[in-house]
Each structure stands twice: as C-alpha cells, then as structure tokens.
Fold this protein.
Amino acid sequence: MLNRIFGLETEYGLLIHEDRPDHSPAWVAHKLRDHLFQVQRRGVIDLHHRGHDEPPGNGGFLTNGGRIYLDMGHLEYASPECHSLADIVASDRAGDLLIQQTIEDLGFADHVSLIKNNIDHETDATFGSHENYLVSRRFPFSRRGLAPLVTFLITRQIFTGAGRVGAAGPQDAWIQMDRLIVPRTAVGVRGDSTLPFQISQRSDYIVNDFFEWVQHNRAIVNTRDEPLADPNEYRRIHLLLGDSNMAEYATALKLGTTGLVLQLIEEGYAPQELEIDEPVEALQEISQDQERNWVIRLRSQRTMSAIDIQEQFLDCAVRHCQGQDEETDWVLAQWASVLRDLRGDYEKLVGRVDWASKLWLLECFREAEGVDWNDPLLKSLDLEYHNLNRAKGLYYGLVEEGRVPRLTTDALIRIAMDEAPKNTRAHGRSTLVKHLLGGGTPTHPDQQGNPDGLFPAYVINWSIFQVRGRAPFPMPDPFKTYLADVRTHLEPIIV
Amino acid sequence: MTYSLIPERREGPTDPMPKSPSPLDEGGGPRRPETGSPDKDSLLKRMRRVDPKQAERYRQRTGE
C-alpha cells in the first residue's frame, strides 16, 4: 500500500498435552529455537546482548529478514518489513509454518500444539499480537491528533476480534484505590467469569488510552518512540490491543483499514467529532456486548454504534484514498462488505472474521451436544480454533471445508519462509543472513570465534548491522532494499 | 505476492492482493453456512476429538 511499511509480531502459546514436568512450554520453546537456528539453519543467532532481556543466543534474524526469539517464555516471531498486504499476510503465515514444521521435525507433533491466540483462560495470562505501521515523523502524534485513531481502534474489533469464551480480570492490571495504585486482583476485582462469549481476546487487558509500557498498563495506543528507522523521517506506530488472527482475510483487513486511517490522519482527512467518552470502558463494552448492538457514548454525549462509526471512517477513506492503488481499493471494497454483513446474521462472516467463525463453531457444537456455555469444554474448543496443526485446528477445519477465502497460497507462504519481500530493507538483511550462513560464520553464541575476545563476528539489528572487520552498515530507510550496497559491503568477506 | 518483479521503491506501482479462488469472487460475502450439511458433520467430528481438559493444561506466562 502507498507509503506504508507493515510489521507483525506474534507471541505463540505452546500447549503440552502430556503430564511431563520436564516439558514446560518454556522448555519446548528453547528446543524449537535451537532446532530452528542450529539444525535447520533458518537464520543466524544473536551473538550480542540486544538489551537487558535478550542475552546472546536468545534469538536471531532469519533468512526471510524476520526474527524469532524468546520473550517472557514465549516463542515470538517478528515478520520482515512488508510494503504490501499480500506480503505481510504471507510473511505472517510463514512464521506460523516455520515453527509448526519445527515441532513436526522434532517429533513433538503428537504432544505439543502451537497455539496462535492471546489468552490463557485458566490463569488470565495474556500475550500479544503487535502491529507496526511506519508513518512520517510529521504524523500528529498528540492526544488530539491521535483521537480519531483511538475511536477507530476501539470500534474495529467488530471485524478484527478473534473472540473468546468468558472474560478476564487481568492480574497485572493496576487500578487507583484512594491514593494508592494497586493490582486489581489485590482488591478482588475480577472479570465476569459467567460471560459466555466476547468478540475480542485482548480488550479485557487494555487499561489505558495512551501509555508507553507493553506489559503492565497496556494502552490502546502505545506511545514508545522507537522508530527502528531514521528518527528524523519516521515514526513507528506500535499497537498491542489487537488479537492474533487466524483468517488471512481478517489479518489483511485489520492492517489495511488501520493503514488507511493512519493515512487519513496524516493528510488531515480523518473524521472528527467522534471522540469516545470513556475509551477503555467502550473497548470492553463493545467486546462483551452479548446483543452485538455495539452502541457507545461519544464525548459529545451522542450515542452511536460501532458499525456507524466505522462507516464514517470508510466514507472518508473512499473519498480520499480510492483509486490510489489496487490494494487500497481491495481494502475499501472488503471493508464495506464486512460492515454491511455485520448488520445481518453473523454467520455471513464465517471464514472472514475470526470471532464469527469461532462463535459459529461453538454454537454448532453446543446444539449438537447439548452443551451449556459454562461447560469448560468450550474453553478447550476455543483454544483448538487457534491450533496451527492443520490436521487438528478448528480454523483449518473450516479451510478444509472451503469456507475460508484465501488471500495467499501455500506455495507463496513456503517462499516467504526463506525469502524477504523484495522491496524493503528486509531484502538487504536477508542477503546478509544468507551470506553469514553460507560463509562459515559461527552461528552459535558459544562459538563466537572472536580472536580479540571483544567484538562478535556480527551484530544485526533492525536498522543497522556490523560484520567484524567492517564499518557499521546503517539501514535507516525501511523502504530501501540496500541490496547492492550490502553485496558490495560483504564482498571482500565472502569466502 | 510481490516476492519477484516488484519495484525497488515505494514510488513504483504497488501490487494487488493475489487472486485465489474464494467465495468473494462470486460477489457478496462468503456463502452462508448450511446447518446440518455434511460439512458441519466433519467439523463436529474434529471438535469431538479435542481433549476436553486441554484448556486446563494450557499454562502460559503473560508475555509482551
């Protein structure tokens, strides 16, 4: 899409089916990472400290320009920088397949399931699907400038939500009691465990409108200023309120509509007068509304439905963005289609919208088996929707039955496991990683081979790399591939 | 997919979403699921194979 770089970061869950104390999710995550880098040689492991929580060996960059690493005990995949929805969908699915295939290679498939969701029903733990959008440094990153984005993000969950059984009271959320800030659980504030179903996994865990942290005090808009690019030119909008989507269609629509709304804000065309009165409460009210009317109160005290609000954003986007490129037109057409269908029976959205697919499956099961909403089995089915094992996962059951529109192909996903998009700096990074893998450079932190004992054989970060004996190579513009310069830079080193 | 034959820079034309067979190509939304169809039966079979206790086994840490 026009002037946009997209990225997705996914934290995966690991479900261990057997009672084996030595096989914790964290233990399996370590095994998978080591197999990916040391046996499959899908990338080069970090040899340097990437910050306080990423020691050498914690993860590394892949041949596709993306990254796999451990984060808070979760295996996490960060896609390469993508300049189109087609590429980000394929690259995101490539991460799924890289890890699922590793599980199968290790012979773990019978007792380990890779789960692409965001919640643990039993402990209320949550883990993220983070979206990244590169915008101009001139983007109006102020409370006033971001107000339309907040309204859009709160209401987009009606088509981006992955759905869940029940509700959560986040254990790591903080609330103000008198003059003290205390954990919610310390004062017994819990979610409504009797809630049958809600449309979003993450909405229960968002407790602020703007904030810079990612773990505690999660916000609708994360305000950390870390562009991973030239800070004079770019800002990275980092969002952590969204759900991991199984449907390719939902992934593309989520990123595409959000990208267009950012463009409307950048160009001064975003709809005004739609500021929501209590954004955090509205986020949870929409997600938990059992009637799916999704009516919220605006700051003007007017009430309005999420569908009507989304249609105002769509109208603005049609007026100002239509015709700028084919992907934009695809997004506008599908945005209109989904909003139209949301006014009718949710079953029309099965295959395109994850919460609708999941709810339909659960209702089919409840009807066939006579199961009540409070049966814990439904939580297990909820999890199984996100199982990335194609022979088992419920989403893949819908795919097998031809109910899911595909936006990419399995062949393209396989390519994206090893190849970076050819029009972003991920291409240059991919070239670097492949050269390092092919050149006999150590790819294990214990074999650094640094004769001076000081500088590792290579240091790679998103916007810069350095190979020992060479000057640092900055890559501040994510829209450039740097391909020729990277090749020239590496040439004398290549064996 | 733009893994080949794509422009170096953003000024170039962007590529469309790849076309693949889908109900969307037939116009409108995806076909309404037909309850009671054989399709539904195969999905129910898949659901009946799920370990009913697996949500209890799924012990994850809070991430980010």
Observations:
- The longest helix of chain A spans residues 85-105.
- The mean pLDDT of chain A is 92.
- Chain A touches chain B through 94 residues (CB under 8 Å).
- The longest strand of chain A covers residues 129-136.
